[in-house]
Specification:
single chain; alpha/beta; 2-enoyl-CoA Hydratase, Chain A, domain 1; N-(1-d-carboxylethyl)-l-norvaline Dehydrogenase, domain 2; six-stranded mixed beta sheet; 30 helices; 19 strands; globular; binds (S)-3-hydroxydecanoyl-COA
Length: 695
């Protein structure tokens, strides 16, 4: 444990007590920090010379919030809520100087001080909602007293980071300065002493009730995030801010505890760490290679999306296509993507043309001689890809990284076509590549550590979540997807309707059920994959021909106006003939349809997902369970509040999962097999969370 005297230091300069937080990387309000603050306050208060106390942070931030790793563990005194209460009540003026970020509990500490001075570049916010909780140290009571209930609702239910200038305008901070935190702290303290910086207790301000804003917010949340628990609790806590502060605080405390105890809190905090855990790889110490100039081969949806992502990150991009016409289409798609990025607020309008200006287009691969990284994104044909890599081997400069965006092909076989397999890697983007955050970095047998590090560096620049994967058909994500998609097809063959399966899984929290996804992705794509896999399909495997019957009619989903659903009206409705196709296929397969509850649908689908995920772990394709969670959270629309498939698996327990698989296996022993690792975990009472910690 860190010595609290080091985490927080007290320095006395005449009448000024400077209390500095030093808890890298982001000054989280851990137990050591809270204890240190309490001790330093005691000492400053005991010193009769001290007339004003200033809090500031060293390093990157004032305080980035409570220490998230402590949630779910027994609270250790002093708790932040009590500290904040004590701060506000002090007779000696206490002020805070904020730089970097003041988030969550960090802003709550600041709101309890008697004046707040921001330093340029500061961002403040109460982002607790993203972690399934609400500001629990007075944020829901003090923020409305400064900004009013409607603005507090917006800020707290979105969790957004508010830039310094806006924070000043809203009244969250009293001043905005430039300079180093200690220097600004000393100057601000002098201003307090000389009456130039007024101080007050925010808790004593009265706030007008806003019943309409409260009702509107609840309606908006019910429509937008029907599954989530904490946004409504945030609104209820804010509503209590029009009551005296002690009553409001009691309500905040009650609602905070409910959120803390909810499984959504555990899922969302797991997701927070999953997003950051994936970069902890064995190659983390290797030095990435240059990444200034990027070549993209293929101007289709994927290639243009990758090119757009690289342009948005400030890279120079060369786009290659076979002929001038295809190249022009690729350029036009990139231009459209950039316009979209401006509309979505991802690219400043004045930077759009410069981004497009960094794109060079060419039909000659010879133009890739000096690029640092090439990403091949042509269609999935092994022979075509091999030929491209042979050509690149002859053209690219030594040390250039040669990447393929294949979503399932054998990267070792592609690398073997070159005289430099150590430079070859898989960079599997997800469509649309300039929007989706997941990047599977697929490490082949001979890929060099610096090349892996380069893939991760690229992800960082592109603001993606990179997950290290090994080579197999489909890598982590698509391999698991192929398996649980079959479970969805079996459910329909055995008695559920596609819309029942979709609705049940959307009820679980997926943004879209598998059949709505199939219609969106295009039924022709899955059909082609099934045809490709047909020759290697084991004889014992059950095969539902329903998707093929639908595809044979040219019903590929949204793009053809029909698929599982009919898109010709205002809202999609189940395509009537699909029910007939399903009935005919059940007859042909000799299946007597049975009823499935929504709960059973979810259980079967999720159990199929987890069992293949365990095989992916067993085979070393994913290194840790949390990598699989990140894959599904950032690439497959897995509900964030459920934390990912492996976090979900822990909430069910390995023993129950084994029991489920054994029960389902009585119908289909080929599909439902218990992975050895899961059986061992059930026997030992082990969890995936423990495996994450051991890795
Ligand atoms: C909160 O404050 C609740 C309160 O209302 C108090 C309630 C108390 C009531 C008492 C009841 C008993 N904790 O993101 P990065 C780590 S909830 C622990 O890569 P960046 C992070 O994991 C909190 N660790 O950097 C990573 O570790 P790694 C509200 C935290 O520059 C490293 O720091 N606050 C942490 O891209 C760097 O992080 C938030 O939700 C934390 N609070 O972004 C803010 N914050 O190196 C969450 C970060 O081992 N944090 N870490 O991987 C962020 O949004 C971003 O981290 C920053 C920095 C914007 C701070």
């Amino acid at each position: 444990m860190t010595d609290p005297r080091e985490t927080v230091t007290l320095e006395i300069e005449g009448p000024v007590a400077l209390i500095a937080f030093d808890n890298p990387p982001v000054n989280a309000a851990s137990h050591a920090l809270r204890e240190g603050l309490a001790t330093c306050l005691d000492r400053a208060l005991a010193d009769a010379e001290v007339q004003v106390i200033v809090l500031y942070g060293r390093g990157r931030a004032f305080i980035a919030g409570a220490d998230i790793r402590e949630f779910g563990k027994p609270p250790r005194a002093p708790i932040l809520r009590d500290l904040v209460h004590r701060l506000e009540a002090l007779e000696k003026p206490v002020i805070s100087v904020l730089h970097g970020v003041a988030l969550g509990g960090g802003l709550e500490v600041a709101l309890a001080t008697h004046a707040r001075v921001g330093i340029a570049g500061l961002r403040v916010g109460l982002p607790e909602v993203a972690l399934g909780i609400l500001p629990g140290a007075g944020g829901t009571q003090r923020a409305p007293r400064l900004v009013g209930i409607p603005a507090a609702i917006e800020m707290i239910t979105s969790g957004r980071h508010v830039p310094a200038e806006e924070a000043l305008e809203l009244g969250l901070i009293d001043r905005l300065e430039t300079g180093d935190p200690r220097g600004v702290a000393l100057a601000a303290a002098r201003d307090v002493l000389e009456g130039r910086l007024p101080t007050r207790r925010v808790g004593e301000i009265e706030v007008a009730a806003a019943p309409e804003a409260i009702e509107m917010a609840k309606e908006r949340i019910a429509a937008k995030s029907p599954h989530l628990f904490s946004p409504v609790s945030c609104v209820e806590a804010i509503a209590a801010s029009s009551r005296p502060i002690d009553e409001g605080m009691a309500e905040e405390r009650r609602l905070f505890q409910q959120c803390l105890d909810s499984p959504q809190r555990a899922g969302l905090i797991h997701a927070f760490f999953a997003e950051r855990a994936t970069t902890k790889i064995p190659e983390a110490d290797a030095t990435p290679r240059e990444l200034g100039r990027i070549g993209v081969i293929g101007g289709g949806t994927m290639g243009s999306g990758i090119a757009t992502a690289a342009l948005l990150a400030g890279c120079e991009v060369r786009l290659n296509e076979r002929d001038a016409e295809a190249l022009e289409r690729g350029r036009a798609t990139v231009a459209k993507n950039l316009d979209g990025a401006v509309k979505r607020g991802k690219l400043a309008a004045e930077k759009r043309d410069a981004a497009e200006g960094r794109l060079a287009a060419s039909t000659a691969l010879e133009d890739f001689a000096d690029v640092d990284l090439v990403i091949e994104a042509v269609y999935e044909d092994m022979d075509v890809k091999k030929a491209i890599f042979r050509t690149l081997d002859g053209i690219c400069r030594p040390g250039a990284v040669l990447a393929t965006n294949t979503s399932y092909l054998d990267i070792d076989a592609i690398a073997a076509e070159t005289g430099r397999p150590e430079d070859v890697i898989g960079l599997h983007f997800f469509s649309p590549a300039h929007v989706m955050r997941l990047l599977e970095v697929v490490v082949a047998d001979r890929t060099a550590p610096e090349v892996v590090a380069t893939g991760f560096e690229l992800a960082k620049r592109l603001k993606k979540v990179p997950v290290r994967a090994g080579v197999c058909d489909g890598f982590i994500g698509n391999r698991i997807l192929t398996h649980y998609r079959k479970a969805a097809d079996y459910l329909v063959l055995d008695g559920a309707s596609p819309e029942q399966v979709d609705d049940a899984l959307e009820g679980f929290g997926f943004a879209m059920g598998p059949f709505r996804v199939a219609d969106l992705a295009g039924g022709d794509i899955g059909w082609a994959t099934r045809k490709r896999r047909a020759p290697t399909r084991p004889a014992e495997e059950r095969y539902s021909e329903i998707p093929d019957r639908i595809a044979e009619r040219g019903w590929f989903g949204r793009k053809t106006g029909r698929g599982y659903y009919d898109y010709s009206g205002d809202a999609p409705v189940p395509t009537p003939e699909v029910a007939e196709i399903v009935a005919a296929e059940r007859d042909r397969a000799g299946v007597t349809p049975r009823d499935f509850t929504d709960e059973v649908i979810v259980e079967r689908y999720m159990t199929a997902m987890v069992s293949e995920a365990v095989r992916v772990l067993e085979g070393g394709i994913a290194r840790r369970p949390i990598d699989i969670d990140a894959t599904f959270l950032f690439g497959y629309g897995f509900p964030r509040f459920r934390g990912g498939p492996m976090h979900y698996a822990d909430t069910v327990g390995a023993a129950e999962l084994v029991a489920r698989i054994e029960r389902y296996a009585t119908d289909d022993p080929h599909f439902w097999q218990v992975p050895d690792m899961l059986r061992r975990m059930a026997r030992d009472g082990a969890t995936f969370a423990e495996l994450n910690e051991e890795a």
